[in-house]
Fold this sequence. Notes:
CATH superfamily: Alpha/Beta hydrolase fold, catalytic domain
Shape: globular
Helix content: 25-40%
CATH architecture: 3-Layer(aba) Sandwich
Low-confidence stretches: 301-323
Amino acid sequence: xxxxxxxxxxxxxxxxxxxxxxxxxxxxxxxxxxxxxxxxxxxxxxxxxxxxxxxxxxxxxxxxxxxxxxxxxxxxxxxxxxxxxxxxxxxxxxxxxxxxxxxxxxxxxxxxxxxxxxxxxxxxxxxxxxxxxxxxxxxxxxxxxxxxxxxxxxxxxxxxxxxxxxxxxxxxxxxxxxxxxxxxxxxxxxxxxxxxxxxxxxxxxxxxxxxxxxxxxxxxxxxxxxxxxxxxxxxxxxxxxxxxxxxxxxxxxxxxxxxxxxxxxxxxxxxxxxxxxxxxxxxxxxxxxxxxxxxxxxxxxxxxxxxxxxxxxxxxxxxxxxx
Length: 323
């Protein structure tokens, strides 16, 4: 299996940003953004698809999770700049990026704020701005937290998340499954898999060990106005995969957001829930790497080859059903 290396840097404001690197240091770089709550250890236990493709995968924590210093009141621009600083530190010019769930606005923020560093992106079952009706259709745990965030009831939100955090740290599998108790059957099947548990739970526990504040900051940001993301500035191609039965991130909200992106397509999975990506890692990677091309993950000073990605529809919000 690939090696895992711990890395961190100190930003000009004194914050620590931590990440892990997987695979050979000279491998094809890929930036992977964790979901919410997630950490530098949010990655699958079986990373053979990464090894088989010769990838060097960089998983960066957001402020307040794991070993990364909290930044109260943050939006998405701050972490976008953190990601660019990490790329500077490791000597990477441009990179494809991949993330799911709560990673969606952070990936789009990076792509919009640092378009010269972003070659292509993939989002899986990503969060998007929601109507109140969509919020009320989420799983109960998400709906409760999102409604509190939207109404500005910060203390009540902190208490809600703190109780969930205590349950997860006491028994990660049971605690998370309790949060997802009303998720669709497809998600229940994924959560019952020991291999999935082994990967997901390590990242979840690491994310929440320092406290609940990073989680609270992220819920507030996701339920905010997303004003620091200029969607028109996302110049690279984006493929957004989404499950029809996702009750964590409603598909209707995702469709509206993707329709606003300049170069994006929307791919649906039928009879699948929020955790569907667990069964599609190789497919997701191959599609992303084909679009990004061989110049996608160039390191500083290396020659850039011409992109050789697959043809990409630039019609905003174009949808195809995955087969």
